[in-house]
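#struct-pred

JT: dropping the chains for the assembly here, can someone run the whole complex?
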Amino acid sequence: MSVTALPPTAVADAPKAQAAGRSPRTRPRLRPTTVLWNVFAVVLGIVWLFPVYWMVNSSMLSPSTLEAATPTFVPFGGSFANFAAVIDGRFWSALGVSVTVTLIAVFCCLLFAFLASIAISRFRFRGRKSFILAVLLIQMLPAEGLFIAQYKMMSELGLLSNVIGLSILYTAAVVPFTVWMLRGFVAGVPAELEEAAMVDGLSRTQAFMRITLPLLAPGLVAAGVFAFLQCWNEFTVALVIMSADNQTLPLWLRGFVQASQTRAIDWGQVMAASTIVAIPVIIFFLIVQGRMTSGLVSGAVKG
Amino acid sequence: MATATTTPSRRSQAPRDDGTRKRSFVPYALLLPAVIILLFGMGYPVIWQFYISFHKYGALQQLGGKPPEFVWFDNFVAVATNPEFWAVAIRSVLFCVITAAVTVAVGILLALLMKKVSAAARLVLQISLLLAWAMPVVAAMTVWIWLFDRRRGVVNYLLDKIPGVDMNQYNWIGGAPIVFFAVASIIVVWMSVPFVAFSVYAGLTQVSDEVIEATELDGAGGGQRLRYIYLPMLRPVIAIVLLLNLIWDLRVFAQITMLQDAGPQSTEYDLLGTYIYKLGVGGLNFGQGAAMSIFVLALTIALSWFYVRSLLKEDEA
Amino acid sequence: MNKKLGALALLGASAIVLAGCSGGGTPASTDGATAGFDPAAAKDQNITLWLMGGDTPDALRDYLKTEYKAATGGTLTIEEQSWGDALTKLTAQLPDSKNTPDVTEIGNTWSPTFTTAGAFADLSGIYKDLGGSDLLDSFVKVGEVDGKQYALPYYFGSRYITYRKDIWDKAGLSVPKTLDEFNADVAKLKTPEQSGFYIGGQDWRNGISWVFANGGDLAKKDGDKWVSTLSDEKTVEGLEQFQTLFKDASNAPVTENDSTPWVNINNDKSGAAPTAATIIAPGWAHWSIGDFKEEKKKDDGTTTEVREWNDATFGVFPLPGNDGKPAPVFAGGSNIAISAKSTKQAGAKELLRIMFSGEYQDMLGKNGLGPANTKHVDSLGDDIFAKALIDSALNSKLTPAAPGWAAVEGQKILEEFFGKVAAGGDIASLAKEYDTKINAIING
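RK: done, full complex below.
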């Protein structure tokens, strides 16, 4: 049973549906069952969010409260002491390193992957299939054993404990998946649109800039968000490449969780540090959230 | 998805004749930056891995500069005849299949739920999922480990409150391996569902409403709609997210390693990622670690073969 | 006290069987560095020192920095590595001459592996100047190959028993004189809420004491090669004792190691009863044991609990053996070495000179870290902790000085083995199984 295909105009319409998933045409009537489903959805959302809430909650409690046998669910009388304790010079330095590396890596990755995805989706050429296959296979190789070679390489180049060095490694690490994602997006915007514009007198490049690129924008945002997440969270490579005084945020956070021989783990501080590491990501997400979900809505994740 | 116009393939267009000379190198030029960065960042390490998998490369070589010994397939044989490796491999495959299946199933259900409810409720659900997804792995793991903590964790506290259930100080993380992996699975599912839910939801919104109304008019119920309209339409999306989750869950490392740091360190609690690290790095046997990585690569290809093949075939169309 | 010093110097003798010369591998040459000191070349050399974990207190670190500057005019940078990640970082960075730490602390259990692999520079030229035979012999031996020294002792630690006097007194028990007595006593003290003796199932570093006390060992040198001896009669006896002890006296999970033992013996802040009546812990743990006094903010902004020792509530004693001497426990502590690939050999040697100076050795002792130079053991003091430390160190042992030992630890093989033993497995078959595993990698 074939379904009528989505007319090309719908593709152009989709980015306009900015709010998360609100389709312009559906408005379910508020039947009683819908109310029940609504309640269910909200409850589910709250339950899903619980660990995030717990993190924030615990970060405001003192270690002694946290050590007690009975958990404290609401931080009455809590304070921001833990935050004050963890935010010091090392934090700011780690934040700086993480932000720099992530921004560079995401920018380069998006640029390179975008160009590559255009090449794969719009052109036929020798080696195309090999490239696609290679991109897929690279994602499948376990990364754990690679760090020795990566260390050697970075050392030869003098890029150890260096923001550039780490950015290069991160870019290389996220490009495959990003190419994969963008491929679907680019393929979803038919070339006919450009050709139609070219009939109207625009050159190919102009057509691309004015017609295709805006349609791809949500997709680029979605891919960028993925890349951002991966770079922000990475720690195995960073551990080896960066030195102790030039850490990224995940390494900084890990320091709190490692049982030291001379000091017990301070869970309050661990939670405060975790909250701090999570905040930029969450803010970033909330900002791009509209664009991103509409990006996915515009028929993005395809084969 | 085919467009309404007649041209079947979205990739069939030939570049316009802006000068036939350009045609041959434009794609290569576009591809070049990505290829360079990949060769640079990944090329040398990957080749090095393949190289040393055929050599004996341990502490003496790494620390003392002794040249690596060429040992043919010894490393591979050692891995293949190591019953522990196979135990870990089977455990990993089971873990990845179960976790990926649960993730995708829950994701689909959540996507359907999102479609069903009104805008406000949908927003709440989506924001929760977004926040869960945005939480950095290290942060999320520390919270979850804390939640399952034997002495002070919330899970034990809440479960203990249920009359008749005695969960006081139940050891989730350091107890039986199957409980350990159940906990790991729950955490991975929690982290991975948002991506699936959003992707499937995106696919769902593409099903045009006329079709749905038509089926309603025909008297089709929700279940039939699910089976005959939604699932077939969503197949490409589901295939991709399933594949990605399989690959990611087979390679899972960070979550397992952090759970192990909180307690049990023996090999029964290892999956492939941590096992390779333990043997290759902790055991200072890089040659064998590399051979193991290649095994895992082959395993992953085997698992995802269904997709890789359809991908290659599709391209020929 | 002299008797103690003499006995300590003999520590090496009792441990020599264990710590014999490790064979295999020729360490790399020191790239043209002179064998002895070279103060002229050390002038203005900036060097990096890696320390493991937080064991070396800040006061000592500052002292090293100041003294180094005074001696050479160069800057000393100290980087702290966490024990968990140290193996990875050392493996990646030691061979890289551009980024290698010039001097590094190295756990005594890893010393044999790194030394035989050739990671360290030859120190035999300055060995005598740094203390020679006054240095703790067993630690010297784990850093020695073919009679040449590559890693020297930094500090030694030891483990002893801390117990709740109040709980023991109430049960009518006094300090046991033999190991058998100890085992029986703690079994009596076990209740569902409180371990008589808290020991995790995977805690081999402490559990090994029962093996040692029965005359068993982890491995021995058979001619040229090392052989795992878990199946030896005496080792099995010790393991059986450990298994029984775990079952009868401990409530700890089978999968727990030894990271923070003191939380179990303290009353928590609200005064609730402790979860253990007895624990075994390294010497420095006593700073964290006692009555809760307050939470203090440290200079770096972190808060820490301040605990005050209370002689009426807490007490210490070395784990007794069955032969009138303290039971052999696993000697904690580290060695110190110069990276073979370091380009600042002269500066590195000057730092070692400072570290082995009398003043620094005394500082180590005053801070509860056993000084490498046995002539300075006095500085540990004579309070109950120092006594317990010295007494237990008298008979302590190290892990086998085999080339592949770091790999055994890196793969957590002993954690696994002990965990299975504690869980009640069949010791004979487990021992055979793990002997095979260890034999496959112990010779590197």
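JT: nice. Residues 183 and 221 of chain B are 37 Å apart (CA to CA). Chain B touches chain C at residues 58-60, 62-66, 150, 171, 174-175, 261, 263-268, 278-279, 281-285 (CB under 8 Å).
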